[in-house]
């Protein structure tokens, strides 16, 4: 158990960026993605949204409130035994506690197999344990790229308890960015370039504004599935 947690800790590479993207006038925020859930993805420019769009998905209402409840029932007791960690100034995550789990009850397993079959290429071997990240209301995730040593091409995450904003920024060009609105109950999927060449972060409550609209960030739990590097 301890070992697995250590591996998860090493999933996070140090943040690549500390600065926020510049050039965020409303005209620059015109990159709506037309053919998908367009309200959920905006970017620095339409070309980027078009290009990266196929590698980024947000599926709203992927789970029901009852299914969220099933996850909470399985997870809350174990999480409550841990304390939120705030003191790792150099870490990728601030104000969080985490765990991972291999065996799930029937309701959760049902949801997870929906995630697996919907998000990952067929036959792609998955990281055994599912990663659970509990962000305090004041918690946030700094820009990082998941370790290519431990994780493969695809990252899929369920959002429980709160809406949030995930920001992707091109590793070598902070002016290329995409904001994803991740509503409570949704599933997001990052693939390929979006996963390898863009950092991702979850904005803190004070900065949680999507396309000009404030999105309050409460305590948020994510349930994340990953595949193995090939
Ligand atoms: C991570 C991460 C995103 C999320 O743990 O590496 O980026 O949705 N999590 O919690
Ligand atoms: Mn990550």
TrEMBL record:
Transmembrane segments: none annotated. GO terms for molecular function: dioxygenase activity. SUPFAM superfamilies: Clavaminate synthase-like. This is Alpha-ketoglutarate-dependent dioxygenase alkB homolog 7, mitochondrial isoform X1. InterPro entries: AlkB-like_sf, ALKBH7-like. GO terms for biological process: DNA damage response; fatty acid metabolic process. Keywords: Dioxygenase, Oxidoreductase. The lineage of its organism: Eukaryota, Metazoa, Chordata, Craniata, Vertebrata. Its cofactor is Fe(2+). Gene3D superfamilies: Alpha-ketoglutarate-dependent dioxygenase AlkB-like. GO terms for cellular component: mitochondrial matrix.
């Amino acid at each position: 158990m301890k070992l697995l947690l250590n591996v998860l800790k090493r999933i996070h590479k140090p943040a690549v960026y500390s600065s926020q993207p510049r050039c965020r006038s409303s005209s620059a925020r015109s990159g709506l993605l037309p053919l998908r859930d367009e309200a959920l993805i905006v970017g620095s420019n339409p070309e980027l949204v078009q290009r990266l769009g196929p590698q980024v998905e947000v599926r709203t209402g992927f789970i029901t409130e009852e299914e969220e409840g099933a996850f909470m029932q399985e997870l809350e007791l174990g999480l409550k035994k841990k304390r939120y960690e705030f003191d790792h100034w150099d870490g990728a995550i601030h104000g969080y506690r985490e765990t991972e789990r291999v065996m799930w009850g029937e309701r959760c397993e049902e949801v997870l197999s929906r995630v697996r079959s919907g998000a990952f290429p067929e036959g792609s071997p998955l990281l055994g344990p599912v990663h659970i990240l509990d962000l305090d209301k004041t918690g946030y995730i700094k820009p990082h790229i998941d370790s290519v040593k431990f994780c493969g091409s695809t990252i899929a995450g369920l959002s429980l308890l709160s809406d949030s904003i995930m920001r992707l920024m091109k590793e070598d060009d902070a002016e290329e960015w995409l904001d994803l609105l991740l509503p409570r109950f949704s599933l997001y999927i990052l693939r390929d370039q979006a996963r390898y060449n863009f950092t991702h972060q979850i904005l803190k409550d004070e900065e949680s504004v999507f396309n000009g609209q404030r999105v309050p960030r409460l305590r948020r739990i994510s349930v994340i599935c990953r595949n193995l590097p090939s």
